[in-house]
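Final report, Chapter 2: Outcomes

The project's central promise was a pipeline that accepts a single protein chain and returns its three-dimensional structure in a standardized token representation, suitable for archiving and comparison. That pipeline is now operational. To close this chapter, we reproduce one record exactly as it appears in the project archive, with the input sequence first and the structure output second.
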Amino acid sequence: MFSSMVTQGAILNIPIYATTQNEARLGPVCSELSLPSSAFQSDKTAFSMFIPSLKSALEAVSTSPYQIAIVGIETHICVTQTALDLMAGGHKVYVLADGVSSCNQGEIGVALRRLAAEGAVVTTSEAWLYECMGDASIAEFKAIAGLVKEMKDSTKDAVQTLCKM
């Protein structure tokens, strides 16, 4: 799922920002993601990825509030703290339910409910991608639609999680 989101982001020219959690102890970003060389990458020990190096990278692109989609592991820790920090900074946050996980599956629904209550848009990658495209007449539509079909099972699982919220 994550690698498909990376591919779709590249098709739509959406910048990618990735962090590792204490890379020396927990390891690098997994190679399966196939992050493009243009992706911002930084190591951190904070649970939130909204760290000074990411803030600087975002400010280099624009100073206006951002619209940021979050995917990642440990929904109840890193994803939640990142989303809360971004919203506190005035940014619009989308949490892609089929792009988050946890070692304890029960934590995911709790975290997604909390984030929705705090003002994050909790949605699926498919819904978010179509919102980004806005119109089927764009050149990228066919490529994105094909990838969405490949992700249908993970999206289905996310929808079932959202329905339980």
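Archive annotation: The chain is about 50% helix and 15% strand.
This record, like all others produced under the grant, will remain available to the consortium after the project formally closes.
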